[in-house]
Specification:
Layout: H1 4-17, H2 22-29, H3 35-63, H4 67-77, H5 92-123, H6 144-168, H7 175-210
Helix pairs in contact: 3-4, 3-5, 4-5, 5-6, 6-7
Length: about 210
């Protein structure tokens, strides 16, 4: 029995070192076509950082009485089709809507990071962050299913912020818009719950089928 183990280990090693045939190698190398997509998302992340600081600077300037900044932040929180209100200083509701907008930008940026880092690690190539002190905790056990659930949870959080912004400024929306946004949020929530339930059921099903 002891003599068979080295042979089996050698067989596994030979299989691992065996070069791929041309067609499988081409198909496998096609994963690198995703690299420009992730680089593009990094550029999009930079755009969101720029928008965050522009909005934050406008909020600070409006707090100190800049009329141009006040007009800008009021215009940003006014729903399309509504007249922009004139005010000498930002109200508490306007400030709250601007802050929720900043939180929204941060959460979308978090979603981008999960897609960039988790997607690259899962579908393109290993990042080799095992010994890096700043490795995200969730990246150590990331796979397609985990990434899918985390993205669904992030989308629900972003939808919650949008829905909260709508409810705070509910007087500017009609009933159909409020019902539609609430229904969309519920649909996101049910979809995430369904994905989480599938991830809990499928491993159990596969383990039972093996027995």
């Amino acid at each position: 029995m002891t003599s068979e183990k080295p042979d089996s280990d050698q067989t596994i090693a030979n299989l691992e070192l065996r070069p791929l045939r041309p067609l499988p190698r081409l198909i496998f190398m096609s994963r690198w076509l995703q690299l420009p997509l992730y680089l593009g998302l990094i550029v999009a992340q930079g755009v969101y950082v720029w928008l965050f600081w522009v909005e934050l600077i406008h909020l600070i300037e409006a707090t100190f009485g800049s009329q141009e900044a006040i007009h800008q932040i009021v215009a940003n929180v006014t729903p399309p089709g509504q007249a922009i209100a004139e005010m000498s200083k930002p109200t508490e509701t306007v400030i709250m809507l601007v802050i929720l907008g900043l939180i929204d930008v941060v959460m979308i940026s978090n979603l981008l990071i999960m897609v960039i880092v988790g997607g690259y690690e899962t579908f393109v190539s290993r990042l080799d962050l095992d010994r890096h002190p700043d490795q995200p905790e969730w990246l150590s056990h990331v796979n397609a299913s985990v990434l899918k659930v985390k993205l669904g949870t992030a989308i629900i959080s972003i939808s919650s912020i949008h829905l909260l912004k709508t409810f705070i400024n509910a007087h500017a929306y009609d009933a159909k818009t409020l019902i539609a946004q609430t229904s969309i949020h519920i649909a996101f929530l049910l979809s995430a719950m369904a994905m989480a339930a599938c991830d809990r059921i499928l491993p159990n099903y596969s383990s039972h089928s093996q027995h």
